[in-house]
Structures are given as structure tokens and as C-alpha cells.
Amino acid sequence: MEIKEDGNCFHEVKITDQDGLLRTIKVPVVQQLALNGLKHLPDRYINVSPDHPVVSSSVPDPSQTFPAIDVAQLRIGPGSEGLGQAQELVKLARVAKEWGLFLIVNHGIEDSILRGVEDVVRGFFGLSFEEKKLSVGTYMNVDNTGYGQNFVRQVMEEYVEGARKVCNHLLEALAESLSLEKHVFLRNLDCKSSEINVRVNYYPQCPRPDLSLGITPHSDGSALTFLMQFGATGGLQLLKDAKWVTVPWPENMLLVGVGDLLEIMSNGRLKSAWHRAATNADRERLSVALFYNPPSEAEIEPVKVEGPSNESYKKVIVGDYMRNFYKISPTIDKQAINFAKI
User: Strands 101-105 and 213-218: what pairing?
Assistant: First the structure.
């Protein structure tokens, strides 16, 4: 629940302490801190060592290094005008393997739907504390404190269904790009009713972005993660070749990420991205993430890999994997995936 004391707003959440006891603690509402003119970063939000401040490098020539995938091209066959499906599949495989993330254009989701999502999210975060708390969700972990999805349910329905269709097509295209049978990934999901979880993230202006991350490093426990952002760019960082780099993600494009479950299904041919969200001293940023998953009771199986392989994955029940994922998170490096490795 939410409470207000001496003009300050707090989430009241329950956590299990190191002795295994259930405790209730108060966590300041981040947006309210920012609106009150936060000049100094509270110790609670320092999650980076001063000896290792948040730094990242930019990507040279992103149009070549991190090109957008034209979804419309993936839907047409070879011989048509333009790049053609075959060439776009080659590009998709390269970017997905190298980054674990890829931009998409010409995806078929109408601009009016995307604007509607932005309007509703901005409208929600423009509400007073008292109005927002009417839509509070229930979270049992202090690191996952946020607002529920009641406020976005109506406007999200069209967006989620549009995203589902795109994700289904991308799972087929990713399989084909790896020279696998078209439905090898998609058969693990129900094309019409598989779970899609929605998370809306708000990153306020931060007086010390070198000492505070919006979200600490993690991979996603999903098959695919479908992302949009507004307000600012440059907030998503990826660990690539042992260095943090800022993902060149324009505000007007959608971004798709490979999740742990797709890494398992692909037997390591695709790898989920180890990524984090940075903060910004000058501008707030908002993002909407859709996590597309097989059913909790589904057993997913890695595809067979021909020839020698350095890594091998095993069958897992999705629900078992996710329970372990949340049990051990957060971790200092990518550990959750080890649950599915032989």
C-alpha cells in the first residue's frame, strides 16, 4: 500500500529479511522525490560503487553495426523488390547473435496505437500521488516496487495483441534465420493466448547518474521482450565484449530482446542480453516492456545442434525456471541460465 507522511510519499512493502522473517518497510516513491526537487542522491539509491561509476561507450556507425530489421521484408519471399526475405533473415541472424537485441521497423502496429500507449502512460505519471495509488499493484520484493497495470489495461489490449502477432512472426523468422524449421520456437507458445506480462518503468532525473542505475544488470526471463520508450534515449546499456555500451535505440523505434527461454530453446545459438538501465541527469525516461512467455506448465526443449558445441542445454519446465530465476535474482553476472545447462 501507499502512505503519506510529512508531505513525503512511500510504498509500504513486505520483504523477507536475512533471518527469514517477514517485515514491512517504507520505500520512498521515486517520482515524488524527483518532483520535490531532489538535489542529492539518497544512500538508498546508490547501487554502484564510486570506484566503478556508471560509464558506457557509444556504438560507431550504428546504422551498419546495429541496423533495424524490416519486418515487412521478412513477410515477403525472395525475388520481390527490395532486399527480399533471404537478405533480411541474414541481417536478423547477425544482429540477434551479436547483440541479443534488435530494432524493428515496418512492424504493422499503427502509430495511433503507439501514441495511445504513450499518452496513457504519461497521463498516469502526471497524476497526483493520491490518484496513482488507486492503481497500485502488489509486489513482494523491494526491488520490484511499482504500480499495477489497471491504469493501462484498456489501451494496452490493442497494443499487446499487435505485439503478439509481431512476436509470433519474429519467432518464426528467427528460426528460419538459423536454418531451423519455421515453427521450432513458436510451437512452445500458444499463438493466441500465451502469457504476455506488461511492465511500465519510470526513470526520473537523477542528480548522480554515475552512482545510480534505473535497473541493475539482468537478463530477461522471457522468450522475447518487446520494448518501447519515450522521454529520452540512451538509457539502455548492454554488456558486449566485456564492456558496457549504450544501445543505439532511437525513441521512435521498437526494440526486441532475446530472453533466457529463447536462449534455451535455441540451444545457445541465440543468447539473452545482459543489460541494465542507466539514469539521466537532465531528462526523465519511460519505457513499456512486454514479456512474451510460453505457459508456466510448458516444457521447453533445446533444438539439436549438429557437430561439436561448447554449450548444451536441457529440457526445463518454464515455471521451474522462472521460480529459480526470481529466487536468485539479482546476481552480479548472468547466472540464472545455468539452471538450464547440462
Answer: unpaired
Per-residue pLDDT at 136 exceeds 60: no
Give the relative orientation of helices 84-99 and 153-177 as an angle to the nearest 10 degrees: 100
- The grid cell for 298 is 510448458
Return d(Cα 184, Cα 240) in angstroms, integer: 28
| Separation between Cα atoms, residue 62 and residue 149, nearest integer Å | 34
Q: What does the block give as the cell for 283? A: 531528462
pLDDT at position 188 over 70: yes
Band of residue 34 on the pLDDT scale cut at 50, 70, 90: low
pTM, to two decimals:
0.83
Task: Output the CA angle 66-256-139, nearest 5 degrees.
Answer: 135
**Distinct helix (H) and strand (E) counts, the chain:** 9, 15
Residue with cell 505519471: 125
In 3D space, the residue among 174, 41, 176 whose CA is nearest the CA of residue 96 turns out to be 174
Stretch among 44-48, 144-148, 166-170, 258-262 having the lowest mean pLDDT: 144-148
**Range in 92-106, 121-135, 145-159, 208-222 with the lowest mean pLDDT:** 145-159
Residue with cell 529520452: 232
CA distance 53 to 67: 29
How far apart CA 172 and CA 183 sit, in angstroms, is 6
Please give the pLDDT value at position 1.
44
3-state secondary structure of 121: helix
- Cis ω on the peptide bond leading into residue 330 (within 30° of 0)? yes
**CA separation for the pair 262, 223 (Å, rounded):** 5
- Collapsed DSSP state (helix, strand, coil) of residue 195: coil
Tell me the C-alpha distance between 135 and 150, whole Å: 6
Q: Where are the alpha helices (DSSP H) in 102-189?
A: 111-125, 129-132, 153-177
Asked whether 295 and 228 are in contact (CB, 8 A), the reply is no
C-beta separation of 187 from 303 below 8 A: no
Find the farthest-apart pair of alpha carbons in the chain and give their distance in angstroms, rounded: 68
CA distance 88 to 80: 12
Question: How far is 302 from 31, CA to CA, in rounded Å?
Answer: 42
> Sign of dihedral through CA atoms 240, 241, 245, 250?
negative
